[in-house]
Specification:
The complex is a heterodimer of chains A (296) and B (414).
Chain A lengths: L5 H19 L15 E6 L8 H9 L29 E5 L9 E5 L8 H5 L5 E3 L5 E3 L9 H5 L6 E2 L9 E2 L5 H5 L5 H5 L5 E5 H14 L19 E4 L19 H10 L4 H23 L1
Parallel strand pairs in A: 1-9
Antiparallel strand pairs in A: 1-8, 2-3, 4-5, 6-7
Chain B lengths: L4 E3 L9 H23 L15 H13 L2 H11 L6 H25 L8 H4 L6 H28 L13 H39 L17 H27 L6 H29 L10 H21 L2 H5 L1 H25 L14 H24 L4 E3 L17
Helix pairs in contact in B: 1-13, 2-4, 2-12, 2-13, 3-4, 3-7, 3-8, 4-6, 4-8, 4-13, 6-7, 7-8, 8-9, 8-12, 9-10, 10-12
The chains are: A alpha+beta (296), B mainly alpha (414).
């Protein structure tokens, strides 16, 4: 059988290598992931929250999710179990005992934290998640393939998936009321809160307010703003009267969740040099061992 | 003796009692699969917001990709390094890889919520996503595998095209097409072969990068920044054992004489690679001092011990022994243990190590998930059987010496 000549080998190999290298020029596509200095944040003061769950009602209404009437939200029995946000409720409030004043339990509102360096945006295979200038991380239904890698990646276990739907299941999570804030309205939950437990504003301002409150009412809070540094900083931040671990906040370091994986990815694909180099080395080995074989 | 071996379609009866069992398992799996497509993923699985990934990702996808690694390891040895003694196993390994990746693709479509958008990554890119890289590489590599398999098709049908009835007029054009394909392929095949090896090293390692981003949720016994390296090393290590495993099974099923000598030679290669994998795994453990987690009795520590002891240490010791390499039964056992160990490693990484911060219940796969996985494996085995009966995959001893065959192909003349 006819073997390809060595010249042909080189020619074809160079052509293939060139094609791969050419791709690197276009490989900068990716989802929008901006860290604008104007991004917004919210301070959740868990020592102020009274557990009325008005925010849950407002959130459902704003997002067109089915909800029981507002009167039923006064029912305190829902606090017996810890609840998590899901496809039907993008935010939920949980109750935790107050060791010093048992009649005044702590309430913790849970929703997407809108990370400064979001794992979901980095992980999503098709870039369906994006971080916007105003700080909101939003999801694009036209891209999503339903792989649920965002859920595996999120350190706060936030994205939720419509497992019961056979067609077009959605990933649901708090979108920081992206459409409302575009119209200069407050996020629905912040707007609805009757006791101003939620403070909305530019993130830097929110951090400043949090520290000011801690300085003014020192004995009211533990000395920690959860979310200021966690996972590289989050848009939503919390003040609490007892240790955050007791309020079931995940213990996270200050390094962003996607840091290591992105370093690895970008290392492997640095201008496609490593794969192309590997291709060249293998080609060389193939060519040399072939010469040996022919010479024998 | 090498020259007397020639890839030949196996002549045997397709239906045997074992095959009927496989068909039943496949039908059972397909029924649950229908449930998933008509009533949603939640109707047949135990997946939840806490455990978004389960058995299907761990076994059908992650373990599937790893166990198809025989394709690129034998291609590297036989075609890139031109080590002739491996040629007899390249085709079975290629077929395993081709069918393996096909079922990985099917597994992905089963698991993702919007299977009809599975092509999205081709046009919607996210360069920072490890999953994007895995997806793209797997798609391209699967195409490469099908191209690498084409020579077997041309070899089988050139000069034998005989379409029935009205299609008879197409005989000559098809024949010409096959010949043109054959000529073009023999000139360019090395491009695809090298590409296949490069693509494999890329996505085998990136499969390990997948869980790096979920570091905070991963058990320290498995989580390490060198996960991609460990995934790549274990994939290389399982390549040859998988070839031994599957060749022995095929030989047994078709009542062929096992190629003891070749398989023994392959077995001799396993120990060094497996040793390197073990060294990195344990070295990483010592550096990060995660051995402290072995002192507590938990699912994680038990699974880790089984994975390393049964899946790496014992087969490593076996492959180092000359008497094991001489015995087909013992070589097969050792190879099966490596296959088990790497499959368990993927299950451990994607399921056991995954500890979500708000888990109210543990994850265990449902009957539906297990049925689908078992059904897909049964279906893959059936297709393997059909392919080796149709195409010249398995090398058989010939009465007269065969002519030297390269990436393929039909022998000279014509």
């Amino acid at each position: 059988m006819k073997q390809p000549s060595r010249r042909a080998f080189l020619k074809t190999a160079a052509l293939a290598g060139g094609t791969v290298a050419g791709l690197s020029a276009t490989a900068k596509a990716g989802p929008k992931n901006v860290l604008s200095p104007d991004r917004n944040g919210v301070l959740v003061d868990t020592t102020v929250c009274i557990g009325c769950r008005s925010c849950e009602y407002a959130c459902r209404t704003a997002h067109g999710l089915p909800t029981p009437p507002l009167e039923t939200y006064g029912d305190k029995t829902v606090f017996k179990e810890m609840r998590r946000p899901n496809t039907g409720a993008l935010t939920v409030v949980n109750q935790y005992p107050n060791p010093t004043k048992s009649d005044l339990p702590y309430y913790v509102k849970v929703q997407c934290m809108h990370c400064d360096h979001p794992a979901c945006v980095s992980a999503c295979i098709v870039g369906a998640f994006s971080k916007q200038e105003n700080g909101a991380i939003i999801w694009d239904t036209d891209k999503c393939i339903g792989c649920r890698y965002c859920m595996a990646a999120c350190p706060f276990q936030i994205p939720s998936f419509e497992y019961e739907k056979a067609l077009n299941p959605e990933i649901r999570k708090c979108d920081f009321c992206y459409t409302r804030t575009q119209e200069n309205k407050l996020p629905a939950c912040v707007d609805a809160c009757p006791v101003e437990a939620l403070t909305f504003g530019p993130r830097e301002e929110v951090v400043r307010i949090a520290k000011q409150r801690m300085a003014t009412y020192g004995n009211r809070y533990v000395n920690h703003v959860y979310g200021e540094l966690e996972a590289g900083g989050t848009g939503w931040m919390y003040l609490a009267g007892r240790d955050f671990a007791d309020l079931k906040f995940p213990k996270l370091g200050a390094s962003p969740a996607p840091g290591v994986s992105e370093a690895i990815q970008h290392g492997i694909f640095a201008y496609f040099v490593p794969p192309v180099a590997l291709y060249a080395i293998l080609g060389a080995i193939m060519w040399m061992t072939k010469t040996r074989e022919e010479g024998a | 003796m090498e020259a007397h071996m020639k890839p030949t379609p196996i002549k045997a009866k397709f239906l045997t009692p074992g095959v009927i069992v496989l068909i039943l398992l496949a039908v059972n799996g397909l029924m649950f699969l229908a449930g998933r497509f008509f009533f949603g993923i939640g109707s047949v699985t135990h997946l939840s917001d806490q455990y978004p990934w389960g058995l299907w990702i761990a076994v059908d996808v992650a373990a599937g990709v790893a166990l198809a690694a025989g394709g690129f390891t034998t291609a590297a040895l036989g075609h890139v390094m031109h080590l002739e003694e491996y040629h007899a196993v390249i085709r079975p390994a290629l077929l395993t890889a081709m069918l393996g990746y096909t079922f990985v693709a099917i597994g992905v479509c089963v698991d993702i919520g919007r299977w009809y958008f599975v092509w999205h990554p081709l046009v919607m890119w996210n360069g920072s996503s490890a999953l994007f890289e895995v997806g793209i590489c797997v798609m391209i590599y699967m195409t490469v595998l099908y191209i690498e398999f084409l020579p077997l098709v041309t070899e089988r049908f050139i000069g034998k095209v005989n379409l029935p009835g009205i299609l008879k007029n197409l005989n000559r054009p098809v024949e010409r097409l096959l010949r043109a394909l054959d000529r073009g392929l023999s000139k360019t095949m090395f491009v695809f072969i090298i590409a296949g090896v490069v693509l494999s090293t890329l996505h085998q390692s990136s499969l390990g990068t997948l869980m790096v981003i979920a570091g905070a949720k991963m058990h320290p016994l498995w989580f390490t920044p060198i996960l991609p390296l460990l995934f790549l090393l274990s994939a290389i290590a399982v390549g040859l054992p998988m070839v031994i495993f599957e060749s022995t099974l095929a030989a047994r099923s078709f009542k062929l004489k096992p190629e003891t000598e070749i398989l023994g030679k392959l077995g001799g290669m396993v120990a060094p690679i497996l040793g390197v994998y073990l060294a990195f795994k344990l070295g990483d453990m010592v550096i990060r001092e995660t051995f402290v987690y072995l002192t507590e009795f938990s699912t994680a520590s038990v699974m880790w011990t089984i994975e390393v002891l049964v899946g790496i240490v014992i087969p490593l010791r076996m492959f180092l022994s000359p008497s094991v390499l001489k015995s087909p039964a013992l070589t097969f056992t050792a190879a099966a243990l490596v296959v088990f160990g790497v499959a368990l490693n993927r299950i451990n990484n994607f399921i056991v190590a995954y500890t979500p911060p708000y888990a109210v219940h543990a994850y265990f796969p449902s009957i539906g998930e297990i049925s689908v996985t078992v059904g897909l494996i049964a279906l893959l085995t059936l297709m393997y059987r059909a392919y080796v009966m149709i195409f010249p995959v398995i090398s058989l001893p010939q009465d007269r010496p065969a002519l030297h065959a390269k990436y393929a192909i039909r022998t000279e003349k014509s």
